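Re: the pair you flagged

First of the two:
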Amino acid sequence: MSSNNNSIVTAWTALKTYIQTQMPTCTVVRSYDPLVSLESIADSAPPTIIIGLDGRQTAQETNGGLFRDSVDFTVMFFKKTVGQTEQETLTELDSLIPMVEQLVNAFSKKRTETIDGVRITFLEGVTLNGEVYNIDWFQNGAFVSFLQVELQVFRNN
C-alpha cells in the first residue's frame, strides 16, 4: 500500500517496471510529452514503449478507509521501420506484431501485484480503436500501436 499521496507517479513508475519485466528487449520510458520523446529515437534503436499520463480519479474504499486512485495511461509501442524494399518492410512488420500481442497479453487479465512495496491492480488493457497498429504513423516510416491502461493504487489518505 502506498503511504505517499503521489499515487500518479507511484503508479507510473510501477507500470514502467512491470512493462520492462514483460518486454525485456524493449526500451521503456515514462514521458510527459510522448511525441517529443519519439524525435530522439534512432532508426537502429530497439522497439520503444513510451508511457504517457492521461488522468486520475479518486474514490474512497469502504473497507478499512483506504483510498483507491484510478490512474489512466496511454502506452505506445513504437519502432521506426528501416526496410529498403517492400519485402524487407513486410518482414520487419511481421516481426513486430507478436511483440504487440505480448504487450496486450500482459494486461489481458485483472490482477493485483506488489511492485516496489506498492499494491497496484492492473486492469485490462485495450488497443485503441481495435487497431493493431496506427496506419497514419506507418505511412511516416514508423510502426506504432497504442494501448489504454488503467491502474488502481491503494493508499491511506
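Second of the two:
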Amino acid sequence: MVSIGINYTITLNLVAFIATSAEAFFVSTRFGAIFLIITNFLIAYFYHFYLISKINSSDDVVYVQKKLSQFTISSFKCVRMTVNQLPFWSICWMSLDAIYK
C-alpha cells in the first residue's frame, strides 16, 4: 500500500504542477491540498511501521498494550485524514467560471 501511495502522491503532485503551469489555480490548490493530506497519510504509515517494529513478544504486557493503543489511535487519525480530503475532491474539478455562473 505504501508503494501505491507514493505513486499516487507523485501523480497528485504532477497534476497540481500541470494545473499551476496552465494557470488553473483553483484546480492546483485543491490538488495541492489533497497532495499534502496524502503525504501526511504516508508519514503516518511509516510511523505505523515504527510502532510495529517497537513491539516485541518478550516485552511486558503493559508496554505492548501501550504501543498497541498508540497504533490504534494513529490508525483512527489516519481515517480522519482520509475523510478530510473528500471536500477537496468534490470541488477540485470546478473552475471559477462554473462557480460564478
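The mean pLDDT is 83.

-B.
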